[in-house]
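User: What would this chain look like folded?
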Amino acid sequence: MVEITSKDNEKIKSTKLLLKSKNRNKESKFIIEGYRILTLAFEQKDIIDYVFINEDFENKEEHRELLKELEDANIKVYKTTNKNFKDMVDTENTQGILAVVSYEKKTLEKNLTDDDKYIIVLDRIQDPGNMGTIIRTADAAGADAIITLKGCVDIYNPKVIRSTMGSIFSMNIIPAERDEMLSTLKSKGIKIVSSWLNTENWYDTVDYGNKVALVIGNEANGIDDVIAENSDLLVKIPIYGSAESLNAAISSAILMYEIKKSLV
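Assistant: Here's the prediction, encoded as structure tokens.
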């Protein structure tokens, strides 16, 4: 373990830069924070570049055990002051450990396979909490892949990462342009299903087929008109009370599980 006390240390400065999306994209790296999510990342330890801990992290036995496992795996650990550590994360109540993780830049051509028959398409989902929850739900519902379209929040935003509760490591998440997504799904014979208010099709009364891409739209404006026009099926969830609409993450969960029932 290497101790770093200076806030001007290059390793600290380069880590802090990853709090910004443009730097994450440039370096193909992001920050994860917290004991639990780091243990999940450690299961794919080849993606961990290095780890930082604060002055208090070693106070717990389970934390010391994790550090021993990291050492045995030849993963570099740096120890720094509580103040320096706090400057590298965006949470108030830190758990005292973070890791810098590398990720693969994906494309539809390379990363969407013929075996992927249950896909979630996210159209301009902008709230980090919604994005993370949808990724976690897609993982739980057995989706094969997620396609994020232009206008979505960065999936490596720290708030998104926390909301995924580790599913960021198990889901195949692919960024794409709208027209590329439409042409790719149609060429693979995948039925495009969009959540849409102006339809007579209730979500639990339709035939989804056996190859489905579910589109979830922007929190305020719904699904892009071009996507709706090119969808094979439009469905809606009933509103029994006086609420105008459902939260994007909630509605996506209802639809994901309904579709999964038809695919089993």
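The radius of gyration is 21 Å. If you want, I can go into more detail on any region.
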